[in-house]
Design a protein that fits this description.
Blueprint (H helix, E strand, L loop, with lengths): L2 H22 L2 H17 L9 H31 L9 H18 L4 H11 L5 H8 L3 H19 L1
Helix pairs in contact: 1-2, 1-3, 2-3, 3-4, 5-7, 6-7
Length: 161
């Protein structure tokens, strides 16, 4: 560990841990997220020259906290969906972790698109709504629906490959 990172960690870890703990009311998650914040900063070695370390830590921590909340929401929704599945459906902890991770990645991918593009994709792929019906609902042309859907699907395919 570089001397700069070591000094940053020594000088601000307790403060950052307390920052997370106030927001989460959970010491274990607070410790994990504080550690994740320092790891993310370590990966950006070029960004280590800063005058206000707590400002940088807070900025990185807010992003990590946002992702943590988002992951919690996805996990909760997935577990609720599992409750509605037949008993024979596999619910191993490994399966749950893999599924939540996949859903989180899909959510991250969909966040790259506009609200309209995301809605078109979800209606088409999850709800099975036709492009004509989507166009009517959004008061846009069928061609626009097709273009937006193609854009999202192309991005999904490029990531899979």
């Amino acid at each position: 560990m570089s001397e700069q990172i070591h000094q940053l960690y020594q000088g601000h870890h307790t403060w950052l841990y307390q920052w997370f703990k106030r927001r989460l009311n959970n010491s274990e998650d607070a410790a994990d997220l504080a550690q994740d914040t320092f790891l993310r900063i370590m990966k950006r070695q070029e960004a280590l020259h800063f005058e206000q370390p707590r400002a940088i830590l807070t900025t990185v921590a807010k992003g990590i906290l946002f992702n943590w909340y988002k992951r919690q929401e996805i996990e909760k929704a997935y577990l609720e969906a599992l409750e509605n599945r037949p008993e024979e459906y596999e619910r191993s902890p490994e399966h749950v972790v893999e599924a939540v991770e996949a859903l989180f990645l899909i959510s991250e991918l969909l966040d790259q698109f506009s609200d309209r593009e995301r809605q078109i994709f979800l209606w088409s792929q999850l709800d099975g709504i036709s492009q004509v019906e989507i166009a009517k609902r959004l008061n846009i042309s069928t061609r626009t629906v097709m273009r937006d859907l193609t854009k999202v699907l192309s991005k999904c395919i490029s990531i899979i490959e």
